[in-house]
Amino acid sequence: MKEEKMTPLRTRMIEDMRIRGMSPKTQQTHIRAVRYFSEFIGRSPDTATPDELRAYQLHMTDAGVSTGVFNARIVSLRFFFGMTCGREEMKRFMQFRRKAKKLPVVLSVEEVGDLLAAVPGPGLKYRAALGISYGAGLRASEVCNLKISDIDSDRMLIHVDEGKNDKDRKAMLSPGLLDLLRDYWREARPEGWLFPGKPKIMALSPRQLNRAFTSAKHMAGINKPATLHTLRHSFATHLLEAGTDVRVIQVLLGHSKLSTTARYTHVATKTIRGTVSPYEMLEKLQDHTVRRGLE
Hints:
Elements: H1 8-19, H2 24-41, H3 50-62, H4 67-84, H5 109-117, H6 125-135, H7 140-144, E1 151-152, E2 157-160, E3 169-172, H8 175-188, H9 206-219, H10 229-241, H11 246-253, H12 258-262, H13 269-274, H14 278-294
Antiparallel strand pairs: 1-2, 2-3
């Protein structure tokens, strides 16, 4: 890995992030975003002007940078100018891009079953990993960073260490999923990481898990534009269709806002189909009125 020169400015920014308690991964993300901006203007980023900030945002737009990446870079630059440089006024020249609200893609229970049955080998490693993605609703990075000690079979819980936004939480561990994990453990005998990568001292990477998901999706003949994250969406939607309170699902997913979880109500088709329309009550009222008129 190429080492980059540690300038006093970068050192100060890293110190500011450490004071804030940011994780190493978050620090790397912010450093990378500031480096991209510095490369764009061709000099030290702390000397940037408002016009250059505007030009950079137009550059990202013209380059087709996704809304998520665009906004993440703006967050990094706001921290850099506001905290490290003490130039709060620069925040006025940075705009977040509004993200189109699209309904998540969801697989049916049958499709999930077909997909897990088609997961490639050798062994049960990827089937167990994808099984956790669906059975506990974990994100790809959360699955990959699991350790053997995170599986609490006594309390039937999975400990998620430093999930999104560096938050710890407990996830559900169903009996069927525990059986699959035990079969996998007896087969592979992993040590440390539950799903080791190559070399084994490293955890499995989300990229490797994504490749396994894509392969299984094609083998199962699923044509929906599903991604690995779709398993998490499907977990939440199927719980909602089974009658689980949306506030419970919020806790299981680790969402800070209930509104984030509530979007699954829009794709819970079984719930929608099973809900009686008020029109039915109107028809019953009309029938009752007609019968009274005939008496």
